[in-house]
Amino acid sequence: xxxxxxxIFLHACCGPCAEWPLSVLPKExxxxxxxxxxxxxxxxxxxxxxxxxxxKLGALRGVEVVSEEAYEEQKWRNEEWIGxxxxxxxxxxxxxxxKVAEEAKANGFSAFSTTLLVSIYQNHEExxxxxxxxxxxxxxxxxxRDFRDGYRxxxxxxxxxxxxxxxxxxxxxxxxxxxxxxxxxxxxPDVSIDPGSAG
Length: 199
Description:
Layout: E1 7-11, H1 15-24, E2 31-36, H2 44-61, E3 65-67, H3 73-77, H4 88-106, E4 111-114, H5 124-138, E5 141-142, H6 151-160, H7 172-177, H8 181-186
Parallel strand pairs: 1-2, 1-4, 2-3, 4-5
Helix pairs in contact: 1-2, 1-6, 4-5
């Protein structure tokens, strides 16, 4: 059934995580616009690769992709979050959900959500709480959905669509902690790509 106010600004961390929400939300009557804001994704080549694959998915599904050209590796490397946030991940969720809420309102959307809610590896409750706080501060609605039951289906869909499926969360520190660290580094080019050039 068509919703009266059906536009939703969907924050997306990558193509694979967007697959399942994009199969669910339109069935609920939502008209989805994808928003790529992930200053936590490092190195630069990885930032661009995830955006490129999200745009590929958007083209496949006929969904607009809006991107914010932010890249803030040093913010994740330093320890300025100590005393302000409970953890580095808490900072990550808070910064991104605040920006998503602000951009949703600035672009005329009354509601937003995030594909982070599909991941079985993220702290689901902290993501939802950060989004709720941002929604309250900005004055827009946060649409909560527990997409985790579709995580594996989304990964299968991403494989079928030929999307790149990453093996670490995103920030340079999670890359260093990944059991796939050496394999991931081996797949990076020798020269980093400036995300500002991602077209």
